[in-house]
Design brief:
The chain is built from 9 helices and 8 strands. With 304 residues, the chain is an alpha/beta fold. Strand 5, helix 5 and strand 6 form a beta-alpha-beta unit.
Length: 304
């Protein structure tokens, strides 16, 4: 996938490494020198899965499948948000989880083994902008917040069509940017701060992520799929008194800061840093007015 600045439209931005197959076994290399940014990303992905679990389950329930799939591929799997939702929804399924980050795949493998699901998961490290590995002939391919990162999305869609078994289903899930957490009038000293952060981020990422926010229906049709359905899932979760959502907001806005700091007015950067101060009485972790607000668009497309 193409190299872009620190990603801010979704917590699951994949890193970019050449691909190789980890098979279904545990990776036992020593990782004491793991990049702290990688570890932060793993934490955000895990929180994303926890906070949005109900909405992800709703999407998997909606998929128009004639029979439960047995062979599933999760493209851009991160630490396994979709993988584990699919394993739970389809108890007979085996999932091949594909990502370009070895750190994410190690975390997914650890979680699978801890839950007794290791035999049902194969992890594959691959850069899907290069050569696609052998992923079998799945009944279902799931791609959540990953397709818009592809350097050549039409090529990637054609690759998925060739990958799927005849009659197989492709589920594309895309987010309407990174979730919002703060009220519009927050913080008191710089109202509207979060929206301004997103405006800067959108501007900085526009040239790198030209397919973010795209209507994937026509693209799927052009790639030879029959689009059988689409929907928008709205997320609005009350975070008052929820320590998990506080940590999710903190991790997300830290990532957002990493991508936009150089383009912010000094006053906005200072206000953002006050929110990110975990010791401050005015920081995110002390607020009781946080929410998680976003939308997910979903397309279900079948290989004829």
């Amino acid at each position: 996938m193409t190299h872009v600045p620190p990603h801010t439209d979704h917590p699951g931005h994949p890193h970019h490494h050449p691909g190789h197959d980890h098979g279904g076994h545990q990776d036992h290399h020593h990782h004491a020198d793991q990049d702290p940014q990688d570890q932060d990303q793993v934490e955000i992905l895990d929180l994303d899965a926890e906070v949005l679990a109900e909405h992800i389950a709703d999407i998997t329930d909606w998929l128009p499948l004639a029979a439960p799939p047995r062979r599933v591929v999760d493209l851009g799997c991160g630490t396994g948000t979709g993988t584990f939702a699919l394993l739970a929804r389809y108890p007979e399924a085996h999932v091949t989880a594909v990502d370009s980050s070895p750190v994410h795949l190690r975390r997914l493998r650890e979680r699978a083994d801890a839950q007794g699901l290791g035999e049902r998961v194969r992890t594959v490290e691959a850069d899907l902008d290069a050569t696609w590995p052998d992923l079998g002939a799945p009944d279902l391919v799931w791609a959540s917040a990953s397709m818009h990162h592809m350097a050549d999305p039409p090529r990637a869609l054609r690759a998925v069509r060739e990958l799927l078994a005849p009659g197989g289903l492709f589920a594309v899930v895309e987010l309407d940017g990174f979730p919002r957490f703060l009220p519009a009038d927050a913080p008191a000293d710089r109202p509207g701060l979060e929206e301004r952060l997103h405006e800067v981020s959108d501007r900085l990422h526009a040239e790198h992520l030209s397919h973010r926010g795209a209507d994937w229906g026509p693209l799927l049709t052009a790639a030879g799929f029959d689009v059988e359905g689409s929907r928008t899932v709205r997320v609005d979760i009350d975070g008052s008194g929820n320590e998990v959502i506080g940590r999710y907001a903190l991790g997300g806005l830290r990532r957002l800061r990493a991508g936009v700091a150089d383009a912010l007015p000094a006053e906005d950067l200072a206000a953002l840093d006050r929110l990110l101060d975990t010791d401050s009485p005015y920081g995110l972790l002390r607020r009781d007015d946080l929410t998680v607000r976003t939308e997910r668009a979903v397309w279900a497309a079948r290989r004829p």
